[in-house]
Design goal:
Layout: H1 16-25, E1 27-30, H2 36-51, H3 54-63, H4 79-85, H5 88-98, E2 102-112, E3 119-122, E4 137-143, E5 153-156, E6 182-184, E7 191-196, E8 201-204, E9 217-226, H6 238-247
Antiparallel strand pairs: 1-7, 2-9, 3-8, 4-7, 4-9, 5-6, 5-8
Helix pairs in contact: 2-4
Amino acid sequence: MPFQFPGTEPAVLLSSAQRETFARTGCLVLPGFLPSALVERLRPEVDRWVDEGLRARSMACGLDKNHSGPPPVLELELPAHAELLTWPPLLRALAELIGPSFVVRHLHSDRHVPGVVGKAWHHDGEPNSANDPGLLMVRALHYLEGLDESVGSLVVLPGSHREPAARTARAHLGTAILPGEVVLDRLPAGSTVLMHSALFHARRPAPVSGAGPGRRRYLVDASYCQTGARWRPAQPHWRYMLARARELELGGGLWPELFAEQHFSEFRRG
């Protein structure tokens, strides 16, 4: 069932059950969360990002040991991506889960071809300068075309965000079925999954069938960090990314910490 907004308010007011689900499991699924008009504008931007080599150049800048400079285009400079990153219902939902003060850490966009291999069990948690596990980083995974058997599934391990485990502690298992896992493979277009960054998850490939290749899988992935300590940046050009967001006045000035530099430490690899 598509996500329903309460009344006519341009906000998401999560129920106490939804907030409890996120705290307990580390994951909250919002089926059909994004408006179709926004999804329709995001899809060609993702196509351009991939087809024109902009994603590859962005990744190369992130891996450049000499930190030669930012990529020619950032995802948040694409109009629909910028709108999604600061979409008021999304930010209000995040505020319901982690409080009203948080900062953007990254925005990534990709299009997976049919038959793409899976991604092994892992989590994306990062320590903060206070070593405070009570400060949260949340990832917003936006599936523009949804998820079904033709594009593969997202698999999560509820409650694993509470484990003091290395991010690759389960990588040796590949994408194997684990006790207690939850498979997300029936989501409509425009669905969003809000995930605690320390939650173990995997991308399970679509099963091979005689029906021919499956569909492309469109994913836009952003992360938001609760303020109160300094977080490790995701890219060497993180200051440029935040500065561009401020120049573009993303968020309309309603979320003063959303692109503030003081919430990050210096970039380092590893």
